[in-house]
Known about the structure:
The protein is an all-alpha fold and about 230 residues long. The protein has one domain (about 10-230): Phosphate transport system protein phou homolog 2, domain 2 (Methane Monooxygenase Hydroxylase, Chain G, domain 1). Helices cover about 85% and strands about 0% of the residues. It has seven helices and no strands. It has helices spanning about 10-40, 45-75, 80-115, 125-145, 150-180, 185-215, 225-230. The longest helix has about 35 residues, at about 80-115. The radius of gyration is 19 Å and the shape is globular. The chain starts with 7 loop residues before the first helix and ends with a helix. The mean pLDDT is about 85.
Amino acid sequence: MYEKHLSTQFDNELNSISSKVLELGGLxxxxxxxxxxxLAEFSAEVADQVEQDEARVNSLELEIDRELSNxxxxxxxxxxxxxxxxxxxxxxxNLERVGDEAAxxxxxxxxxxxxxxxxxxxxxxxxxxxxxAAEQLRRALDAFARLSAEDAVAIIKDDDEVDxxxxxxxxKLITYMVEDPRTITASLDLLTLAKAIERIGDHAKNIAEFxxxxxxxxxxxxxxxxxxxxxxx
Length: 233
């Protein structure tokens, strides 16, 4: 995923840490799938498993951070390698936050189950947004593995679709609350859940921006889409 170095050991260290980032990504992807299954089936048991997995996510994040610190201290990397390591650090932080959002979804699912009112709300409408967000994350991890700036730009372009799904769901929830005030408490929990899904899409977009930074050396976090596309040419 990067140019070979004179030191084979350095290459091995970079390969190791990149593999752990992808492992972390796979773990949080699984959390998202489980959290949405818990919502679809109103399964408190699966929701509990999502929360339990958070400890492994946090542990892996700390492990990656320690390895990054050791590499920077021992190797004193040059510009392109330092970009890679900094972007890996930021990618890891975003993946950990995706795990936080999945755990938040799991907690909301349990609240909906306890309230007994969640089944009367349009929880199924969230699956489209959740599927989009999860797919964005999967694509971001694939782009990270291949360091593809072009794929990263495509992910950023598609982020608006997740936002549109979220906005449409919010409008529907407002209608439910106006028509039946008894659903307000459960609807607000569902709104928190929907916002967590939207944030997962945002984190996937952030990872895509870091990929462009690694490959092109351009910080596109606050740029326009046209500027991002220009940076990858």
